[in-house]
Structures are given as C-alpha cells and as structure tokens.
Amino acid sequence: SGAGGVSLRVTKEFQNMMIRRSITASFFSGGITTYHVAMLEDNLVDTLYDVQCFDLEAVDSIAKNKNHIPISASRYANPVDPNNVIKDLDIVILGATEIDLDFNVNVTTDSHQTIIGGSGGHSDTASESKITVIVSPLFKGRLPLVKDRVTTITTLGKHIDVLVTERGI
Quick one: which of 50, 41, 57, 30 has its CA closest to 123? Predict the structure, then answer.
C-alpha cells in the first residue's frame, strides 16, 4: 500500500479485516509504515521487505525485528531481475491525484502540471501485482478525481483493476 492518507487508512482497515477473518500474509513490501510494523508484530505478516521507511516506528522496527528486512530499489523492482520482490505481489493499494476514463493514473503532477511528488513504486507495483486497487476521494477540494484525460500518466490504465472512492467502486 502507498503512504498517502487514504492508502494508510485502507491499510489500517486491512489490518482489522485480517484480524477478524484470521488472515495472514507472507510479506508486505515497499514503503513501510507503522501499520505494516504492527501487523508484523501481531503475526499477521511473516516478513516486511522494506525499500523505504516512512515513519519512526518503521525505522525502529528495522533495527529490532529480524523479519523486517531492508532491500535495495533494485531488489524491489528491477525489471531485469527475475527475482524482484514485486513479481510476487497479489494486491497493491495505491492512491491517485487523477484517474481518467481509461484508468490511467496521475500521482506526479497537479492540474497545472506542477510536480507534486515522486511516484514511488506506483507504476512498478501496479504493473506486476495480480490486483491493483486505486483508493482516493472522488473530489479533492473542488477538483474531481476522474478526468477525461489525466494531466500526466504515471501508471497506465491497463494495470489498474479497481477504483474505490467514498461514493463506491
């Protein structure tokens, strides 16, 4: 899951669902947060493959948990490495600044084409995961999430399976 606000909230809900249904995961990977660490410590996940710690709890965990393993960006998503971690992803939960009618996603620029941040593993994980879920509010301020065409294509629509907003799926 990504580290944006909605993705973090979904990760927390995923944790609650895993507890209620007695589900465990073999690994989480990517940017690791407090929620991922809590799931490791609660034995809901076997291993964290960490390419980037997103908060202090993740930093502390990488020092004390033997199953919280730092990895390089190459080990994470190098397309010529047949053993990269993202090839084993079942599901990714990612955010969006914009999504268009062809499911192309923008997380790189705002509506004025100003760079607002890096895309992290957005396109890498979406291209390899069995299921890619985009989670975002339908409106941000007064700006709609869904556009005829996104300002910048960060992740191709052919890799997106589901869009979930507060209004539905």
Answer: 30
